[in-house]
UniProtKB/TrEMBL annotation:
InterPro entries: DUF3726. This is DUF3726 domain-containing protein. It comes from Leisingera methylohalidivorans DSM 14336.
């Protein structure tokens, strides 16, 4: 299914919130999915998989335990959304050290939009690498090298961020993205949790005249 980037962002924001993320993190997840979709990646599918995996579980279990040395999470698997948000806060640290490493990150492709944000902040390209994949971005364009199955990996044992990074074969973003109907429906199930339940009063308001006689 083909969707506008606005549609993708709106659906993903609702779904992320429905899965228990804060509104702030849900917004970051939605913007990141939109960014990936603009470059032809299956962002919506990957976000749906991640949200289902961590559905309503405590975010602290999947957050970096510390932002020094190699980043790890208490549960043994790290959320790319929480880790990515932390990376944005550590952009200067990345530039100073030249490298930040994380262990056992779920759906590593979802980290790349956060690298794009760091690149814009640092005004220099940032690269993200894990087994079989290397992606570099200056925030506006993207260079991707790797196999399709590496891009869609559900778990990366190690992810490394480096800056400054070299970019070749740059991709330009497009205005629409795609998501299979099955993935879109899965996001819709999560998004539906954010809708207020219908009441008798709201049903009557939605029915037009309700019980009134307008004749």
């Amino acid at each position: 299914m083909n969707h506008s980037l606005n549609e993708i962002e709106a659906m993903c924001k609702r779904a992320a919130r429905g899965a228990g993320l804060s509104w702030g993190l849900a917004e970051e997840a939605a913007k990141g999915t939109r960014w990936l979709s603009a470059f032809g990646f299956p962002g919506a599918e990957l976000l749906a998989a991640l949200l289902e995996l961590n559905d309503r579980l405590p975010p602290a279990d999947f957050a970096p335990s510390a932002l020094a040395g190699v980043w790890t999470a208490p549960s043994g698997r790290m959320s790319p959304l929480i880790a990515g948000a932390a990376l944005s806060d550590c952009a200067v640290q990345l530039m100073d050290a030249g490298r930040i490493e994380m262990e056992r990150v779920c759906v590593p492709l979802l980290l790349v939009p956060f690298a794009a944000g760091a690149a814009l902040r640092l005004e220099t390209p940032v690269a993200v690498e894990w087994a079989g994949a290397r992606l570099a971005t200056d925030g506006r364009q993207l260079c991707a090298q790797g196999a399709p199955d590496a891009y869609t990996a559900m778990l990366a044992e190690k992810v490394a961020f480096t800056a400054p990074a070299e970019m070749t074969e740059r991709r330009e973003p497009v205005l629409r993205g795609s998501a299979p109907a099955e993935a879109w429906n899965r996001l819709g199930v999560l998004a539906h949790r954010t809708y207020a339940p219908a009441t008798e009063a709201s049903r009557l308001r939605g029915a037009g005249a309700g019980l009134s006689d307008n004749d």
